[in-house]
Amino acid sequence: MGLVAYLKTQFVLQLLLGFVFVVSGLLINFIQLLTCVLWPIDKQLYRRINTRLSYSLWSQLVMLLEWWSGTQCTLYTDQATVDKFGKEHVIIILNHNYEIDFLCGWTICERYGVLGSSKVLAKHELLKVPLIGWTWYFLEIVFCKRKWEEDRETVFRGLERLRDYPEFMWFLLYCEGTRFTEKKHQISMEVAQSKGLPKLKYHLLPRTKGFTTALKCLQGTVSAVYDVTLNFKDHQVPTLLGIINGKKYMADMRIRRFPVEEIPEDEKECANWLHKLYQEKDALQEHYHKEGTFPGPTITPPRRLWTLLNFLFWAALLLSPLINFACGVVVSGSPLLILGFSLFLIVASIAIRRLIGVTEVKKTGSSYGDEGSKKQN
């Protein structure tokens, strides 16, 4: 292990990274709160400002992936598809197997200029998560409880509000509804069998309601659906803690573009189209497990300096007073000040660890398999 790699594993440096993210995030959330006065005056200006504020926060996580850990993302797609990236409103369908699948999606968003305006159909519990949920609230993210009777009006209203969004947006859907685990997969395939649907090996049965609703509500705004199938070289199982420790991963993403004109408008036929798509995604994953690659030409978009420069700006702004204060506490020799600062560090480390815990597979709760959830499709 080299010196740089060793330093990346040290708790003090990781705590400083977390401090910059949390404090800058709270400052950004406060500024976002102030921008609410613009909504009744100029809604589009409010949106443009919040797009850039959210970029300043999310790009710090992308920086960890691209510059801290050095993770590489290779796209398996054609140049004609890449030429449309960042130039149209689209719905993204991504498999939900990994703790950092959202980060891999964000790094592609960043490289094509749509990170700040990226959207997601998120579970309602995330609205209560500091920084993440709060930033998403100001970005008009659509939150759902995954109970259609309760979500119907909220989802329709939230999606229709995005029809006039001024920035090109990529709207992410995890159609499986929850992250893949063996237990959930077993339950999902029991549901597939009961419905007479083909079984999937690498995915859960997609929940079609969110997709058909999003496509209907954003009709005339969204011009295409991007199907993204993600996997990692050498059977790697990436984690956010691994990223923070500086571990490098090799991500491969098979991207296919489907113009909305090719997708049936009828809800039942659209649902069948989605089921067929997931059968194709399963075949792609089978190919990857056998060959170690996806089929098709490869493109590796270069990382941009903006994420690194943004982090360095916040680090310079926030770490200097923190370090000066810490030195003052040590020099003072006051047991009370030292104890107080130590408690602050402990609380900060716990808070950061809890934020990381939101992404961990073993801690992602879900009602998947309950009788109520089985009736959602």
TrEMBL record:
Cross-referenced InterPro entries: Acyltransf_C (IPR032098), Plipid/glycerol_acylTrfase (IPR002123)
Transmembrane segments: 12-39, 311-331, 337-356
GO cellular component: endoplasmic reticulum
GO biological process: phospholipid biosynthetic process
Start and end residues of each Phospholipid/glycerol acyltransferase domain: 90-212
A GO molecular function held by the record: 1-acylglycerol-3-phosphate O-acyltransferase activity
Keywords: Acyltransferase, Lipid biosynthesis, Lipid metabolism, Membrane, Phospholipid biosynthesis, Phospholipid metabolism, Transferase, Transmembrane, Transmembrane helix
PANTHER family, alphabetized: 1-ACYL-SN-GLYCEROL-3-PHOSPHATE ACYLTRANSFERASE GAMMA, 1-ACYLGLYCEROL-3-PHOSPHATE ACYLTRANSFERASE-RELATED
Family statement drawn from the similarity comment of this UniProt entry: Belongs to the 1-acyl-sn-glycerol-3-phosphate acyltransferase family.
Protein name: Phospholipid/glycerol acyltransferase domain-containing protein
Organism: Oncorhynchus tshawytscha (Chinook salmon)
Organism classification: Eukaryota, Metazoa, Chordata, Craniata, Vertebrata
Gene expressing this chain: AGPAT3
